Known about the structure:
single chain, 3 helices, about 55% helix, flat
Amino acid sequence: MNTAAAKRALVLTAVALGIAGCAAMSARQTETTRQMLGDAGFELMQADTPEKVSHLKALPPRTIVRRERNGAPSYAYADADGCKCLYVGTKDNYHAYRKLARDRQNAAVAAAVDEQASDPRGWSVWGLWP
């Protein structure tokens, strides 16, 4: 195999691995979102008819959308590719979901800060830490 072909193969392999990694991260994030929606009280509705499947595919994928229903806001999250389902919730469910999402993000930031705080590399050069 010549050098150009080897480089092309290496680039294609890197791209494929990157795409696979992104897909795995996306699937993990979708699963986390669905778990938090359920924990927040959103109702899971399966797309069990061709009409529901068609409507599900017409909605923005894996995005919470706000709609008015009987004069009150309702929220929906469509996952046509994963669970082939729709999560539907009220304003209170949505606020509970947002709190769960904030708490999860704050926990991740705190864990990262704690991890950085325990890193012993070079802090003494600033003269502020032993």
